[in-house]
Every structure is written in C-alpha cells, then in structure tokens.
Amino acid sequence: MKIGKLEIKDRLILAPMAEITDKPFRQMARKHNAALTFTQMISARGVVRSEFRTMRKIAFSKSELPIGVQILGCEPDCIGESVKEISKYKPTVIDLNAGCPVKNVTKLGFGAALLDKPQKLGKIVSAMKKNSNGIPVSVKMRLGNRKNNALETAKIIEGEGADFITLHPKLGTQSSEDKPDWTQIAELKSKLRIPVIGNGFVFTAEDAIKMREETNCDAVMVSRGAIGNPFIFSRFEQLVKNGNAPLPTVDEIYANTLEHVEKIKIEYGRNLSGLHNAKKHIIWYFKYLNGINWLIPNVLNARSCDELAEVLEKHFEKLKNDEYPQTDVEEIKRKFKDRILFWLLDKKD
User: How far apart are CA 218 and CA 224, in angstroms?
Assistant: First the structure.
C-alpha cells in the first residue's frame, strides 16, 4: 500500500488517540518502526482560529515523518480552510475523524455523527481534497452511527477523491466492550478501489496478523493495543518476516518506560502536567506484569518526578527478584479493554 510517496508493507500504523498520541508517544512508536503515526484529533475550527492549544498538537519535527494529522469538524468550508492551513506543515496525510462515538463529540455533529449524513460527508471530503495541496486525504470511519451504511458512505468518500479509508467496524452507538465485526472490513475491501485499512480490537501483534489474513485489508491500524506497548510494531514486523517474535523482557519494558518518561519531561517539564502524564504511561507499560496492584497506588501517590523514579526503580527490582505474587493477567486484560484507565474500575466491574 502506498500513501503518497510512503510505502507501507508489513508494518503497522498508529491510530490517532485523544490525550494519548502526543509527541513522546509517537516517538516511542517510531522507535519500534511504526509505518505511520498520527497526532491527536484536532479541531478544524481551532486551526482556522489559530488557537494555541490546537496548533501545538499539530506541531511536529521532520524527524517524526511520516506523520498524519487528524481533524474534527462538520462544516465543509471550515474543514477546507483548516486543511489548507495544515497542508503548510506538510504532513504525510490529513485524516477526517468520522468515527468518534463520544456524546460530547457527536452532539455537535462531529465524529460518528457525520455517518448519518453521507452526502454532507462527501462534501467535506471534496473540500479537503481541493485544499490539501496534493497531500493525501483519508477518512477514519465506523460502520455507521445508528445503522450500518458503511458501503454507501465509503462509496461517496471514494467518489470525492479520498486516498484511503480506515474502518473500525462498529456502530457509533456501540461501546468499547462490543467486539468489532472484522468481516465488514473484508466486505468494504472487496467493493472499493481505494485502499482500506483495518482497525479495532488489535491488542497484540498476533491480532494484527489475524486481521490482515481474515480481511485482506491493505494495512492494520493499532489504537489501544499500542498503549504501554510500543513493542507491538516491532513484534509485528518480526512475526511477518520470521514467524516468531519474543515478548519484551522486564528489562526492555523498564528501559522503554524510562525513555518514554524522559521524553515526557522534555515535552511538558517536571511540573504537574508532566508528572500526571508520566504516571498513566508507567502503569500502562507494566499492566500485564506481576505487582501491578502494588505499582498503581504507589505511582498515583508520587508527588514529584523524583518520587516517581524511585517507585519505578523499586518496582523493577522487585520484579527482577520475583518478589510479587502471580497477577491475574486475564482479569487486567479484560479491564483494560473495557477502559484504558483500568485502575479506576471497581472490582465488581
């Protein structure tokens, strides 16, 4: 599959995720050879108004290429103007969010709500294409908002010049616990001329292999499966090439966590913003290892980056010395799939 000049073969794509895919996160994904990363979704209106918080999310360095920028909005003119502005930064691709199911998004007509109005969505894609200055444009979509109209919508998107589509095969009304229907990716792939990227419930490199084999999709995009797990990108490559890929060792997890936290400090400083950002990522990196129930409260109670470093070092030593009882990994996996901030779930959930 090609996106502009970018050839994507036997590699995974990092999905845009709000409050997740910031610069440090993208850098860790690129370190493990993600084919393409995305910014967090950004407001088209915020771009047109040059709002600082929005423009900061767009900012990326040349070393981050290839990179995509995902926009959120519902008015063709506004989105067209935002794409024209974003194109000045020369990202690899500009993507439209037509899949976010969050009520605060859909009530404004954004995200998955766009799937209720395929013709309007087509006008938006047309505006993006006309203003992208040759940069490929794409749409990340669901099957529909309240009903499955994926093929009708995708045909309109294709007809208006989109370079590819990413499909998360669920309805906007379905929750994160509902399993996506991968057969819908295969269906779309068989009916469209443009590439189709599959997305949804890919938590391991093995899942990505399975999706590709079952759907014949042109590429696989990873969302929650990359959280605390940049290794998914390199493991997928190894599986494709060698048929096997060892899981990361405790030493590798610890080293990558330290590197990620250091990048967070560089990006946000050692203040509360940097501290809180680092805390959630540390928990995510170690979520499937023994001792997670010790780590969570100690990380959350750390009052400085220095305290956090001490907690992390102590946890690593306890892991190396096998001092923790066995953790119910399957239970943690279930909680994480239900909600990425799994430590906030009650035991009864």
Answer: 20
Structure tokens, 336: 């994480």
Instruction: Tell me, yes or no, if 74 is annotated catalytic.
Output: no
**What pLDDT was estimated at residue 348?**
46
CATH code for residues 2-242: 3.20.20.70
* Global pTM exceeds 0.85: yes
Among 182, 269, 294, 176, which residue's Cα sits nearest to residue 225? 176
Per domain, the residue ranges of the chain are: 2-242, 250-344
- Distance of alpha carbon 337 from alpha carbon 346, whole angstroms: 14
Catalytic residue among 74, 78, 100, 305: 100
Neighbours of 215 (CB within 10 A): 22
Neighbours of 167 (CB within 10 A): 29
pLDDT digits (tens, 9 = 90+) for 46-100: 999 999 999 999 999 889 999 999 999 999 999 999 999 999 999 999 999 999 9
In sequence order, the 6+-apart residues with CB closer than 8 A to the CB of 158 are: 165, 192, 193, 194
